[in-house]
């Protein structure tokens, strides 16, 4: 068959951080590319999340793309951890600079994709009835783009305003003088609570399990400092490339119990006072793996919470009991704990006093009824696999991806799936980008997939597919790595858990915990050896 038998060489779903870079790389190869984006603007997660307080907790200058020296030279970040509007400006700047926008079809929601064996091509269907055919299909649909509402009786009866954080309206949300509820205390809830506590009249936080939070220590970046950063981008990205999470912060190989108490406390004080994820990702390596080492660190952080929260009973509620520090995603905050010292802020522990129902006026627990003007559901996402479940994806022999992944995702390197030729899951489960400094992970994945596409095309092949055995080996490796870390033993979106979905998390391995360095080695081994994990025809 001829190349022209399909509308496109590549269709990319999603115009966020990943989709934009994939688009750039495909255009560089001279391919016919279309990007389908359900939103009306580009930026993915940075377009959607409009809630107050939304910002990075990656250092801004490690979050930008690294592929273009000109781009690095011309863009200046204003803060160590930039807020959402600045990031969105940055992504629009990138799209303008590399002339990407004209290839993006906005308001285009993909509902189905089916592999056509006779044509070695995918047919992609949109919710408006349109369909496109493409040789290669690439998903850049995000890890956290499928928001989940809680299952609380009476949810729709509320007479005030209410929404999930992912659907925070672009304008018209009044906070001043309002009585506000926030349900959920993950990274999103923590950012919102800290930001709005001094703006609203009353704030009631409904908490299931608390998280271990640590200070962000944000500050402006001056022009001289930004020049110094620009001059050292090579070293900055090299440093990120050597850490398991693609951040500036990598683990310290000393062991907790090999040091004196004085030494380790001094180190923890230093990390707690420093900006960013150092207190988590720059900590002693055994705090990620060894319960006793982790318990020491958790006790240190619990002490900080007690110091920062005036009422000991409230502090006690804010200290996690279900997991140790860093065994779930650590929200970084600015005066989050101090918010609970304010007279207008109240914490309701819903494990002690469960929510009975949402009423027309507000929220009723077993103990009290609270009246609100606004209820914000910061209840998280159907993480990583959720965005895939929302598209009806059919592979070889009519097999549905949802069925193949019913008991947990199975992939090769998180980027390809046996039975689904020519489909590249750029931001897939078990890939290097789950829970890493996202742009660092996706740049690598996109470049690697781009290399594989070039390899396939240069040899005149039309079909590339992960072998069943290579996929099995990767799944086994993902499980083996997961067994080593405390993170895999907790229930959060990192482990495929969502309290509002009826789904077992047993055997769900959505995240690769072997680290970015090991992941990169695996990618490079495939490329250097002619992609032995794949068949091509
Ligand atoms: P998360 O981290 O999944 O947090 C969701 C929060 O919502 C968490 O505190 C949950 O408590 C809580 N939750 C979920 N369902 C309910 C119900 N039914 N009632 C009360 N509370 C509930 O999502 P985020 O949006 O905060 O953060 C997602 C990621 O975005 C984050 O990791 C960053 O990478 C960016 P639980 O812990 O399950 O007890």
From TrEMBL:
GO molecular function list: oxidoreductase activity
Enzyme Commission designation: 1.14.13.-
Keyword tags: FAD, Flavoprotein, NADP, Oxidoreductase
Signal peptide: none
InterPro entries: FAD-binding_Monooxygenases (IPR050775), FAD/NAD-bd_sf (IPR036188), Flavin_mOase-like (IPR020946)
Entry keyword Ribosomal protein: no
Matches recorded under Gene3D superfamilies: FAD/NAD(P)-binding domain (3.50.50.60)
Alphabetical list of SUPFAM superfamilies matching this protein: FAD/NAD(P)-binding domain
PANTHER family: DUAL-FUNCTIONAL MONOOXYGENASE_METHYLTRANSFERASE PSOF, L-ORNITHINE N(5)-MONOOXYGENASE-RELATED
Stated family: Belongs to the FAD-binding monooxygenase family.
Protein name as it appears in the record: NAD(P)/FAD-dependent oxidoreductase
Highest classification ranks of the organism: Bacteria, Bacillati, Actinomycetota, Actinomycetes, Micromonosporales
């Amino acid at each position: 068959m001829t190349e022209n038998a399909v509308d496109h060489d590549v269709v990319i779903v999603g115009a966020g951080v990943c989709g934009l870079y994939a688009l750039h790389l495909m255009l560089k190869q001279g391919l016919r590319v279309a990007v389908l984006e359900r939103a009306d603007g580009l930026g993915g997660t940075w377009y959607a999340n409009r809630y107050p307080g939304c910002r990075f907790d990656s250092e801004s200058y490690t979050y930008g793309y690294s592929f273009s020296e000109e781009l690095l030279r011309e863009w200046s970040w204003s803060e160590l951890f930039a807020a959402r509007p600045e990031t969105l400006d940055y992504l629009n700047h990138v799209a303008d600079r590399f002339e990407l926008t004209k290839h993006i079809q906005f308001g285009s929601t993909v509902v189905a994709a089916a592999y056509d064996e006779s044509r070695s091509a995918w047919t992609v269907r949109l919710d408006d009835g349109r369909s496109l055919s493409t040789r290669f299909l690439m998903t850049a649909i995000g890890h956290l783009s499928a928001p989940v509402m809680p299952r609380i009786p009476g949810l729709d009866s509320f007479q005030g305003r209410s929404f999930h954080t992912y659907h925070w309206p672009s304008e018209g949300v009044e906070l001043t003088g309002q009585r506000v509820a926030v349900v959920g205390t993950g990274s999103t809830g923590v950012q919102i609570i800290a930001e709005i506590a001094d703006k609203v009249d009353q704030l009631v936080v409904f908490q299931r399990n608390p998280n271990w939070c640590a200070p962000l220590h944000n500050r402006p970046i001056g022009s001289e400092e930004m020049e110094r950063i620009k001059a050292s981008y090579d070293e900055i990205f090299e440093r990120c490339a050597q850490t398991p999470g693609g951040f500036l912060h990598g683990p310290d190989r000393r062991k907790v119990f090999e040091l004196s108490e004085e030494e380790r406390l001094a180190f923890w004080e230093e990390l707690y006072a420093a900006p960013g994820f150092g207190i988590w990702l720059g900590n002693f390596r055994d705090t990620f793996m060894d319960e006793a080492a982790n318990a020491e660190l958790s006790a240190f952080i619990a002490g900080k919470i007690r110091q920062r929260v005036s009422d000991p009973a409230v502090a006690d509620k804010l200290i996690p009991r279900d997991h140790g520090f860093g065994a779930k995603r650590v929200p970084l905050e600015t005066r989050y704990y101090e918010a609970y010292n304010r007279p207008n802020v109240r914490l309701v522990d819903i494990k002690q006093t469960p929510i009975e129902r949402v009423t027309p006026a507000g929220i009723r627990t077993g103990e009290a009824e609270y009246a609100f003007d606004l209820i914000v559901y910061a209840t998280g996402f159907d993480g990583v696999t959720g965005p895939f479940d929302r598209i009806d994806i059919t592979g070889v022999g009519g097999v549905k991806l949802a069925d193949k992944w019913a008991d947990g995702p199975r992939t090769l390197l998180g980027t390809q799936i046996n039975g689904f030729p020519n489909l590249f899951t750029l931001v897939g489960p078990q890939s290097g980008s789950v829970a890493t400094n996202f742009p660092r992970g996706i740049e690598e994945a996109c470049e690697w997939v781009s290399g594989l596409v070039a390899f396939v095309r240069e040899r005149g092949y039309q079909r590339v597919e992960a072998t069943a055995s290579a996929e099995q080996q990767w799944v086994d490796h993902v499980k083996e790595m997961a067994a080593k870390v405390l993170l895999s033993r907790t229930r959060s979106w990192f482990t495929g858990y969502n309290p509002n979905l009826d789904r077992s998390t047993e055997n769900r391995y959505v995240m690769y915990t072997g680290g970015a360095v090991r992941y990169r080695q695996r990618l490079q081994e495939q490329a250097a050896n002619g992609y032995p994990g794949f068949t091509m025809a």
